[in-house]
């Protein structure tokens, strides 16, 4: 076996590690078409799977060191997560046509009645009696509300 690291108890390459793992997980029985003495090295390792597997076992690779394949893990595919979302009860899903309530109440939007407007006007370069200065000419860009998500917990908001 060629080598690049320690895998399943012996020093082997990534290719032999993967071959051994697939063979064990798939419970594959290979057959040699020659006399079971094929050359297995980096150049000829793909010629005979039976002899390659025998060389892995002769080198000391342990089948019990191969872990079971993980069905569900941290790397769920997009199709899996989308299909699982379609299986949620309809009461838990948000209707895309539902109007999202505004983040600010009308009293927040009224510049003249809010004490917060007076506080904003006291900031340097904001508000006051300078031409073109108002709460709408804030040095900060307006918030992007196009990507807001809501989590529905079953309670009314």
UniProtKB/TrEMBL annotation:
Domain Nuclear receptor, by residue range, is 1-68
Q: Which InterPro entries match?
A: Nuclear_hormone_rcpt_NR3, Znf_hrmn_rcpt, Znf_NHR/GATA
Query: What's the source species' lineage?
Result: Eukaryota, Metazoa, Spiralia, Lophotrochozoa, Platyhelminthes
Q: Where is the composition biased (Low complexity)?
A: 75-86
Q: What is this protein called?
A: Nuclear receptor domain-containing protein
Q: Does the keyword Nucleus apply?
A: yes
The UniProt keyword set, sorted, is: DNA-binding, Metal-binding, Nucleus, Receptor, Transcription, Transcription regulation, Zinc, Zinc-finger
Task: Check the record and name the PANTHER family matching this protein.
Answer: KNIRPS-RELATED PROTEIN-RELATED (PTHR48092)
PROSITE patterns documented for this protein: NUCLEAR_REC_DBD_2
GO molecular function annotations of the record: DNA-binding transcription factor activity; sequence-specific DNA binding; zinc ion binding
Name the SMART domains for this protein. ZnF_C4
User: Annotated region Disordered: where?
Assistant: 68-157
Q: Which Pfam families match?
A: zf-C4
